[in-house]
Specification:
Elements (H helix, E strand, L loop, with lengths): L15 H14 L4 H15 L9 H10 L5 H14 L4 H10 L4 H7 L3 H15 L11 H13 L4 H8 L4 H9 L5
Helix pairs in contact: 1-2, 1-3, 2-3, 4-5, 7-9, 7-10, 8-9
Length: about 180
Amino acid sequence: MRQSPRQKRPPPPLDGARLDEFALSYVARFATSAAKLEAYLRRKLRERGWEGEGPPPIDSVVNRMVEFGYVDDADYARAKSGSLMRRGYGTRRVDQALNAAGIAADLRDEVRAGKAEQRRAALALLKRRKFGPFGDGAQDRAVREKQLSAMLRAGHPLDMARELVNAASIDAAERWAGEEEDY
């Protein structure tokens, strides 16, 4: 094999100033949680190495970003939860995504959707995927079971998924999703 005449030099190891630059650049580009920022900085340190004195100050960099308001777990949780619910995901999947982002359990409970929001999210998925009454109309048992399984994988409770997949009409599904009572 021939080697190219120009060898790529490995990037220089990080120091305190460069670690701050990486953190600022990351929070400027992405809405993130403190745990995701920490994981990003740790990955960069693994890739590039550490040149500064003592151990890398990851915790202090993350804490500084939180103090400045660049990282806010509560705002991130609300935004991520709302986004996933609008796309049709259920509370179980939203909770899994927030847990993976390092959001604390009490904060996940605080932003968890109410029954009315859960119903609207289930209807959104039904419309988007053309399930139940939004489909082509040929609904045999196997098709309904596959649709029900997809609704469950999206994080919706069995009773909600069954109600929507088996809805008699689009109007009936929309009426059900509009009900705000607890059941």
